[in-house]
């Protein structure tokens, strides 16, 4: 009896009020059909889908243990149990609807989140592209194009390639242009020879970088003291006085 | 061209500084360097020291474009590679004819590769103290070519051999932080005033500041 109710809660956002806990109850009333689900960003949708899948697994495990408990003490085990979801209700509903309608494959989402590895000892020449995160601890020559994913060059990684990704982390050695949509991070032992094009950059002490850094300005505020200084002085006096 | 030595310039005026610490050094050279490049908003800066997040952020937030080239580390890596290559070279071959001048020429085939008249400012830090004469002459020649007319070099010169290797980063408009760092190169020489003038002989004017910490700051205007 409780199992059926719990499954209905997870698989359908239009679950009956009677079967829902406070944490799972959607804010919208009356109940919505999958086509009326609120629009949610893909990344949040994917995260919610993964959380839901884990919730399913948890429920399945509980089912097994509950069945065992029913055999031992039927009255105690028939109480409904639901682990609270921590995702926003809109995300959960949208993910549930997407899974139900077949728009989202939760297994594909989970797979896409685990990075691909180029392990130490492997050498690759050519162009590598994809949408999953990539971790390189081997040697790569060519081009790396991972527009929406993160590329990490591990401590043993040796890359002679231009890298394009959402986020680039370098702990090893790179020779080539790094173009990141969000961020470039250089570790303390990293060696980079090439230009960096990124809106944000993080460099640990000890990193070696030779190249041009092209960043979007994040702070357009001028130094007030410097402005005052320019107003006060006539240009070139100090140097001319020294000649 | 001449060198004026000053301990505390009257211009530019006082500026806000960060909280002082043991490694912080009030830098009149930096203050004037920033003033001299201030007309070139959106100009290009070349940092020849070890890359520093603080220094990059400092210039980027002021609207400059910055390039960085860790010259000493590159030079050291180059020498290591060459040494390895020569060790495996056949006896009587090319290896025996390699001189410091040849090495310097070869190194500069890949280092400091930028368009001419490109930079408004160059942060040389104490780099020049670490190069031998052959390398130094060629680096100065290249630096001069890379700078725009009116561009300025900020250099630091030790007045006695430093006890250890340091790296430098900008804290604020008149403060440099001097941090101990693993040794990359051995200090090569202590420059006298006249030698510094000769080194920057092609530059239009120069100015130096001597601090109490045995570090002389120099500004050289193209």
Can you characterise this structure?
The complex is a heterodimer of chains A (243) and B (222). Chain A is an alpha/beta fold. In chain A, 33% of the residues lie in helices and 28% in strands. Chain A has helices at residues 2-11, 42-72, 74-77, 89-100, 106-113, 224-232, 237-242; strands spanning 116-118, 123-129, 134-136, 139-153, 158-170, 173-175, 178-186, 191-193, 196-197, 201-203, 208-214. Chain A has a six-stranded parallel β-barrel. The longest helix of chain A is centred in the N-terminal third of the chain and has 31 residues, at 42-72. Chain B has a seven-stranded mixed sheet. A three-stranded antiparallel sheet of chain B has the order 2-8-7. Chain B starts with a strand and ends with a strand. The A-B interface holds A 186, 201-215, 217-223, 225-226, 228-230, 232-233, 235, 237-243 and B 1-4, 9, 11-13, 15-16, 32, 34-36, 38-39, 50-53, 56, 60-63, 65-70, 73-74, 111, 173, 179, 204-207, 219, 221. Strand 11 (208-214) of chain A pairs antiparallel with strand 4 (65-69) of chain B.
Question: How are the SSEs ordered, and which strands pair?
Answer:
The complex is a heterodimer of chains A (243) and B (222).
Chain A: H1 2-11, H2 42-72, H3 74-77, H4 89-100, H5 106-113, E1 116-118, E2 123-129, E3 134-136, E4 139-153, E5 158-170, E6 173-175, E7 178-186, E8 191-193, E9 196-197, E10 201-203, E11 208-214, H6 224-232, H7 237-242
Parallel strand pairs in A: 1-3, 2-4, 3-4, 4-5, 5-6, 5-7, 6-8, 7-9, 7-10, 8-11, 9-11
Chain B: E1 5-6, E2 24-26, H1 28-37, E3 44-47, H2 53-61, E4 65-69, H3 71-87, H4 100-107, E5 119-125, H5 133-146, E6 147-158, E7 166-172, E8 175-180, H6 193-199, E9 205-210, E10 215-221
Parallel strand pairs in B: 1-9, 3-4, 3-5, 5-6
Antiparallel strand pairs in B: 2-8, 6-10, 7-8, 9-10
């Amino acid at each position: 009896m409780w199992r059926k109710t719990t499954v209905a809660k997870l698989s359908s956002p239009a679950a009956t009020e009677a079967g829902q806990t406070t944490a799972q109850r959607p804010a919208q009333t009356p109940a919505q059909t999958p086509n009326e689900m609120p629009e949610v960003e893909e990344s949040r949708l994917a995260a919610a889908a993964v959380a839901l899948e884990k919730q399913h697994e948890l429920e399945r495990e509980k089912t097994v243990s509950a069945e065992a408990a029913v055999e031992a003490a039927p009255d105690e085990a028939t109480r409904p149990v639901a682990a609270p979801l921590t995702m926003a209700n809109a995300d959960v509903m949208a993910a549930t609807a997407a899974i139900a309608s077949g728009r989202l494959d939760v297994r594909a989402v989970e797979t896409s989140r685990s990075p691909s590895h180029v392990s130490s000892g492997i050498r690759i020449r050519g162009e590598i592209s994809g949408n999953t995160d990539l971790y390189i601890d081997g040697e790569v020559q060519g081009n790396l194009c991972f527009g929406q994913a993160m590329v990490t060059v591990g401590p043993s990684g040796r890359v002679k390639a231009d890298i394009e990704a959402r986020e680039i982390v370098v702990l090893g050695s790179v020779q080539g242009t790094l173009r990141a949509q969000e961020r470039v991070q250089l570790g303390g032992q990293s060696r980079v020879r090439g230009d960096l094009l990124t809106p944000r950059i993080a460099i640990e002490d000890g990193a070696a970088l030779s190249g041009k850094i092209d960043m979007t300005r994040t702070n357009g505020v001028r130094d007030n003291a410097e402005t005052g200084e320019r107003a006060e002085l006539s240009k070139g006096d100090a140097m001319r006085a020294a000649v | 061209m001449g060198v004026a030595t000053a301990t505390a310039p009257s211009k530019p005026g006082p500026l806000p500084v960060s909280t002082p610490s043991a490694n912080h050094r009030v830098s009149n050279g930096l203050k004037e360097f920033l003033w001299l490049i201030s007309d070139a908003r959106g100009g290009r800066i070349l940092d020849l020291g070890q890359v520093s997040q603080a220094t990059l952020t400092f210039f980027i937030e002021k609207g400059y474009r910055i390039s960085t080239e860790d010259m000493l580390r590159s030079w050291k890596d180059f020498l290591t590679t060459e040494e390895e290559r020569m060790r495996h070279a056949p006896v009587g071959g090319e290896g025996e004819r390699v001189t410091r001048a040849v090495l310097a020429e070869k190194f500069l085939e890949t280092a400091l590769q930028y368009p001419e008249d490109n930079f408004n400012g160059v942060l040389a830090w104490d780099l020049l103290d670490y190069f031998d004469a052959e390398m130094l002459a060629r680096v100065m020649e290249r630096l001069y070519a890379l700078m725009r007319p009116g561009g300025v070099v900020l250099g630091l010169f030790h007045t006695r051999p430093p006890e250890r290797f340091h790296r430098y980063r900008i804290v604020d408009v008149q403060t440099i932080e001097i941090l101990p760092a693993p040794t990359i190169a051995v200090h090569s020489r202590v420059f006298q005033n006249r030698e510094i003038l000769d080194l920057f002989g092609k530059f239009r004017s120069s100015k130096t500041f001597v601090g109490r910490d045995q570090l002389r700051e120099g500004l050289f205007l193209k």
